[in-house]
Design goal:
six-stranded antiparallel beta sheet; about 625 residues; alpha/beta; disordered N terminus; about 20% helix
Length: about 625
Amino acid sequence: MTLRPTASLFFVFLFVGCGVAIAAPTIEKVEPPNWWAGHSIETVRVMVRGNELFGATIRTSHRSLKISNVLVNGRGDHLFFDLTIGKNAKPGEYVFDLSAKSGSSKIRFDISQAFRPTESRQSVTNDDIIYLIMTDRFADGDERNNKDVDRKNPRGWHGGDIRGVISRLDYLKELGITAIWLTPWYDNPDEPNTCAQPWCPYTNYHGYHAIDYYGVENHFGTMADLRELVSEARKRGIKVIQDQVANHVGVQHEWVKRPPLPNWFSRFSQNTFNDSVVMSPNASKAERENLISGWFNEFLPDLNQDEPEVSRYLIQNALWWIGMTGIDGIRQDTIQYMPRTFIRDWSTAILKQYPDYYLVGEAPEMDSAHLAFFQGGKTGWDGIDTRLPSVFDFNLWEASRDVFTGKRPASALRDVMKYDGLYSNVNRVTTLTANHDVDRFMSTPGATLEGAMMHMAFMLSVRGIPQIYYGDELAMTGGHDPDNRKDFPGGFRGDQRNAFTRDGRTAEEQRLFSEVRDWIELRKGSRALREGRTVDIEYSDGVYLFGRLVDGEIFVVGVNRSATSKNSKFDAGLIGLPFGNNVCRPVGGAKTVPASDHGGIDGTINLVLPARTVIAYECFAARR
């Protein structure tokens, strides 16, 4: 039979032949790619990236799922829709039908089973010791992912990865670590950043230039590696903390070329980093907006969390990582450069699903009032309670560094802690020995091994949740970034020694390692050191003496940075002991101090404070 072309068929031939055919819609990426039934967020906002999505509608035939509120952007390359997941929705892949002006396509989405590591998730508390690891610089456990590794370049990839961390968990357990914080593992650009600045070119080994919030950095490993890390860490009593970055992305992110919405990013303006304006009710609107919306630099586009779609995306992403990996906590980068309303909403959503979850925010300020402004549990001048459980105590870190390098008197430690009442819960504040953004203690002018020992001991004896930077237990050196991010000796093929083992450490390294391990063990065994209230006893140029007291358990910690031994005599009632015969037994920091002859029988306590030492005494009333 001979077919006779109709007028309409002729028109189609002509339309295609002229090369102006409308392409069918395409789907490139779905975020999040999956979710869970029974989650506290039962309606998840899905973002789809593709092309020719104009006029899209989405349908599902599954009764346990409901799709609503479809939004397509002006270029037709991103769409958003609400997906309500019924509690009875079964795990598996679901396919949604997308119809657009140019044709149809399919959207694939998974309803997942919750990932359950071998041990149940527990919150990070002041019972824990956190260990900060820069993944690329710790240990190489899988050389197959060593793309463009150049260990001679301090700003290049060095090969550390997730499997390397897994291989060193036993070392961390030996030290006494109970939680590890890894720098960001989002996928970052492989190519280095170039510019006219002295620090260029540099790679993204640190992880803070995300190009895919749902991808694992290929230099570090896979999602399976992350899950294994969490499971293996749990077996050893070690929790895992993710470093998240909601403030900005890397300039190579696809969003920069194709923003999902016109206001997805803040307009470019260089951040002046006048951080004080965020907590001042007297600051101008312009100054405050610059701090929140200004970019770090041209490589880090600033996300606009005031746009509800951006905020919802980031909140869901945080919850997605918890659900996918079983992590125990989140460190949020640069909280003071995001709206406090977003920090509140982010914290609230996570705590709704995971009550008592560990969330800690970074605001690198040496001002206790500024830091306390961001901890949740109270309302600020702006009417906002961030609900953020923890912040880093940078103020106490700086004071400790300065005291133990001879720049400030010992009383400076008390001068910081006298502001503890500003925090809603000072026991939830996270203290630190250092981190990846500051010079290491041993590269600070005036630093000595004895000073490092005192710095570490003090941080392990005060209130809060202590965090140790990798290598601080070995007195590693390192000045400004990237010198403070050196490779851990023994973590990489070709290293001349292995400091993960006793035989591979120098005498000085082993001395500090043993001291740190002993203080960690003492803290773990003492409820007073972990959660007791602090009582100032004596503070002067060379000495800071304070008690830690809880429910009848009494520890007295003595800091003596002087070159000579000191004696401190005080009223026993200061630490809750009765008039009469009291005993104080040295339990940490000074093995040469006799185990007797401390305390008193006349209502006073007399303690020896050895030179250049932090010492702990356990005090109690003697039995009659």
